[in-house]
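USER: Please consider what follows.
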Amino acid sequence: MADNNIGYMGEEQPGEGRVGAEEESSPGGERIPDRFYRALSAVDRRRCLWYLLEQSDASDVRELATVLAGWEASDTGSMSTESDYDAVLLELHHRHLPVLDDAGIIEYDADNGAVTLEDFDDSARYQLADLVAPGDARDG
C-alpha cells in the first residue's frame, strides 16, 4: 500500500491523504477545508498569491516564475539564473499552481499558462492578503 503522506520529491505532506481529516471553522461558522491550509503552507504559493493580490489579479506562469526566481535570489543575496527560473517554472506548473487551483484560490489554465485569482469579496481579499503578506508588509 502506498504512503499517502509522501508528496512531490518524497517530501512529507502533513495531513494529505488522511481519511477523515478535520476541518476548522471560520469566524462565520462555515467549514474551512484542510486543502486551503495546505495551499498556504508553502512560501512559493504564498508569494504567488501576494503577487496576484498586489498586481492585477491575473498573470501567467512565466511571469510568476520570473518574479519568484528573483524573489528567491534576493533572499539569498545572489543573482537569479536561467536554471533557477526553469526550476521555479517546473515547480509552479507541476506543484504549486495545481494545489492553489484545487483549493479554489486561483484558476490555473495549464494549457495556456494563465493564472487568475478567484473573485473574492473585499473582506476575503483582505484576510487572504493578511495571511500571505511577507513579514515586512505585515509590520508596516
User: Anything to note?
Assistant: Strands lie at 24-25, 31-32, 58-60, 106-109, 114-117. The chain is about 50% helix and 10% strand. Confidence is low (pLDDT under 50) at residues 1-27.
